[in-house]
Amino acid sequence: MEPSGKSPCPRWLNSTVLGIGLASLLSDWSHEIATTAMPAFLATMGVAAAWVGLIEGVSDGLSSFAKLASGHWTDRLPRRKPIMVIGYLVTALGTAGFGLATTAWHVLLARATAWLGRGTRTPVRKALLAAAVTRKTYGRAFGFERMMDTLGAIVGPATAFFLLNALGHDYARLFFWTLVPGLAAVAAIVFLVKEKQRTRVASVSFRDGLRQLPVRYRKFLVAVGLFGAGDFAHTLLILLAAQSLSPTLGTTGAASAAVGLYVAHNVFYAGFALLAGWLADRVSKPKLLASGYGLAALMALAIVALPLGLWVLAGVFILGGVYVAIEETLEDSFCAELVGEE
Fold this sequence. Notes:
mainly alpha, disordered N terminus
């Protein structure tokens, strides 16, 4: 897997890395269309803003448990790619299921289904990505995947705006259109991702499996858990901006500005994901990850302590994009170094 001097491109950017990157872009494109439209869609139902937090919280919680179960179970399988395909398919169908919703409970059910699929596929995607490159290029490979994922998060909100206007704010048809990039993501996995032969991990109980994890990895989980306890879904930043700016910009202007800020958030996320991956292969991963956590604390402090005008919110969204790029790229690539290939 080492690159040769005559290679026209770095060998880490192989078919599997490209396929996973494209799938991340297309899947994120799909569900970011739905995420962008979800607060306004819920508003048409006359439900409280707290529903946004409830939907995101329940969905993220289910996704987290799905990641835990999937990681344990799929280590015992001779082939993991089929699970990844199913996960992307469930996410696509669950996201499109927003179009069938008539109450907030329906939105919660559709989002939870989509995020269960997302949680199931995530450990498999990371394992296949790590297996496709050398340890020296983990940062670049994971940074590329995060960059591609976030490009989808840039295109998604823009597509949502275009479709809302083109479809006359018909939310059901908008959500059904998410199937196009969602199913294309499934195709990218099927045709581009190559799974290497691997030795199956011996079948042990879940508890024993946790005990076998290296001590350094368990210490790493403590830091990740502490950070996660204070983190929140950045969908709430859209709601925060819309509420904070409505007295000066009006409801419509504030909504447009909020989505524009979210696009800026994702632009910085995409740009810094690849940079963070490049740095991760050259500097101390723990220190770089700690700097990302520090930026998250700075963003939270700004929300609490500063008057939330347009320029302060712009800074908040930019900090949010930068820290998530560092956090997600470094958590993945550092994790891959702390555990054995099995």
